[in-house]
């Protein structure tokens, strides 16, 4: 090791042995930072100490010198543990970077465009609780009189959920939406997920199709959180649910289909459990509270509504989402 | 020009003998106390692996002189089961004592050169070299 380090150490040690002041110790502390910066291992520090002491306090009994050799032996594994730690930290940083790139890839992969449909105002928000999302929103439409929307939630979070999500996206891209209808789409996606995803992965999904020709909204659900239908004429919410098993459980699961007619001012809210199971330190946010939040902005455009609900629930959870959050609002103008 | 000597590993006590041989040779080459401790720690790890996973084998120590460059080689060999996945074994945090910096990655860090030859069912030969600076 460099002679300079040894000389510096010797000087600080000599001064400390002279007057044992806090000032000396402070210098020692500062010097230990330098040692770490210079990548000097614990066993080398003992060795530096030993040779410095040989100059400063010669004539110590030989057993004292042997004791330092013993201490060096003691420190070898500490040095190794430190090196391993440093390399693991570096690996973690690399993984973090990789994750960020993967999240960007996912963002591009899951990009979706709100379809333009006569008389229908659509808005949505989807925010992952961690770097990668297990929620998925997918729109299709003919930009005339038909719009389909899927909201899916993969159980689990992070990378496994994100990978599974790509399967769902692949399925969505290959299915013929308007010919299959909501329950048909879910059946197709179910078979894809069942085949390609392992047994411990489950996906819930709500699929809805709006037909502007007769203002009908038909829907099917694979074990997903019920959607909400706001009826303007009665000023109340009705839950929209349809029987159906989670995706990926059984090849031949069947999906019930429901349909409603949307009147002027009505809207449908489809969400994941990141919305309905929002948690504050005091416990779950009451369903009533969530309905109140949605109601309070019912006259605003769909996108503003979705953003407001997110902002409120985010605030209530101290800006730390417990779960991926997704909400779609389809509003009849 | 090389000088080679060896210790057979059958029992845990043979690990001490291998360390002793390694330390003596390291001193002869001219290594200081810190490097002596590093070399013997590497020998401990390799000898213990032989004892634990192969049952028996040997540790050879060779003093090296390559054109004026002096060094020491530890050659740990056995005819045990071999190491199935060397790549995994060389990953930090994989050894059973993970997080303590020991195991094969530790040996690699303690030494300058490190080489594993292993074959399933045939055995393992690990060569680790440290050069005198
Ligand atoms: N000579 C050998 N023959 C067969 N397998 C070996 C041999 N040496 C190591 N291994 C295998 O490689 C693995 C990793 O060895 P390594 O020394 O890195 O860690 P460890 O022995 O498991 O734990 P540690 O050494 O930290 O106490 C061992 O668990 C063992 O399975
Ligand atoms: Mg081991």
TrEMBL record, chain A:
It comes from Bhargavaea beijingensis. PROSITE patterns: PPM_2 (PS51746). This is Phosphoserine phosphatase. GO terms for molecular function: phosphatase activity. Residues 121-332 form the PPM-type phosphatase domain. InterPro entries: Bact_Sigma-Reg, KaiA/RbsU_helical_domain_sf, PPM-type-like_dom_sf, PPM-type_phosphatase-like_dom, PSer_Pase_RsbU_N. Gene3D superfamilies: KaiA/RbsU domain, PPM-type phosphatase domain. Coiled coil: none annotated. Keywords: Hydrolase. It comes from the Bacteria. SUPFAM superfamilies: KaiA/RbsU domain, PP2C-like.
TrEMBL record, chain B:
It comes from the Bacteria. Coiled coil: none annotated. Keywords: Kinase, Transferase. InterPro entries: HATPase_C_sf, HATPase_dom. Pfam families: HATPase_c. Residues 34-133 form the Histidine kinase/HSP90-like ATPase domain. GO terms for molecular function: kinase activity. SMART domains: HATPase_c. This is Anti-sigma regulatory factor. It comes from Bhargavaea beijingensis.
């Amino acid at each position: 090791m460099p002679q300079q380090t040894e000389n510096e150490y010797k000087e600080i040690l000599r001064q400390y042995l002279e007057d044992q002041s806090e000032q000396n110790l402070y210098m020692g502390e500062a010097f230990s930072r330098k040692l770490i910066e210079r990548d000097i291992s614990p066993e080398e520090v003992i060795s530096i100490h030993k040779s410095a002491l040989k100059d400063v306090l010669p004539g110590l009994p030989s057993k004292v010198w042997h004791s330092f050799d013993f201490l060096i032996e003691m420190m070898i594994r500490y040095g190794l543990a430190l090196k391993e730690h440093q390399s693991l930290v570096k690996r973690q940083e690399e993984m973090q970077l990789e994750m960020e790139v993967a999240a960007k890839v996912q963002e591009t992969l899951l990009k979706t465009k709100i379809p333009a449909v006569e008389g229908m105002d659509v808005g949505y928000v989807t925010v992952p609780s961690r770097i990668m999302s297990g929620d998925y929103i997918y729109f299709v439409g003919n930009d005339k009189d038909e719009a389909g929307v899927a909201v899916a939630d993969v159980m689990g979070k992070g990378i496994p959920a994100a990978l599974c999500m790509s399967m769902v996206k692949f399925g969505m891209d290959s299915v013929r939406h308007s010919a299959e209808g909501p329950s048909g789409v879910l059946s197709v996606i179910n078979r894809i997920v069942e085949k390609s995803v392992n047994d411990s992965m489950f996906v819930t999904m709500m699929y809805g199709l709006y037909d502007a020709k007769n203002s009908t909204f038909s829907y099917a659900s694979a074990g997903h959180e019920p959607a909400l239908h706001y009826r303007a004429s009665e000023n109340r919410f009705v839950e929209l649910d349809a029987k159906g098993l989670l995706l990926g459980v059984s090849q031949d699961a069947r999906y019930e289909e429901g349909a409603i007619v949307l009147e002027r001012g009505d809207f449908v809210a489809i969400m994941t459990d990141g919305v309905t199971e929002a948690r504050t330190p005091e416990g779950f946010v009451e369903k009533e509270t969530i309905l109140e939040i949605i109601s309070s902005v019912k006259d605003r455009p769909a996108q503003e509504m979705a953003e407001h609900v997110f902002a409120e629930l985010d605030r209530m959870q101290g800006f730390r989402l417990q779960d991926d959050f997704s909400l779609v609002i389809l509003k009849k103008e | 020009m090389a000088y080679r000597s060896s210790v057979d590993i059958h029992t845990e006590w043979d690990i001490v003998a291998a360390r002793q041989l390694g330390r003596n040779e390291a001193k002869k080459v001219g290594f200081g106390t810190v490097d002596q401790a590093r070399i013997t720690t590497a020998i401990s790890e390799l000898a213990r692996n032989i004892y634990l996973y192969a049952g028996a084998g040997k540790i050879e120590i060779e003093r090296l002189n390559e054109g004026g460059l002096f060094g020491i080689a530890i050659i740990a060999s056995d005819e045990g089961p071999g190491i199935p996945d060397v790549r995994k074994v060389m990953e930090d945090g994989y050894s059973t004592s993970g997080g303590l910096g020991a195991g094969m990655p530790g040996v690699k860090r303690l030494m300058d050169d490190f080489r594993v030859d292993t074959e399933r069912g045939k055995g393992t030969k690990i060569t680790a070299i440290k050069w005198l600076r």
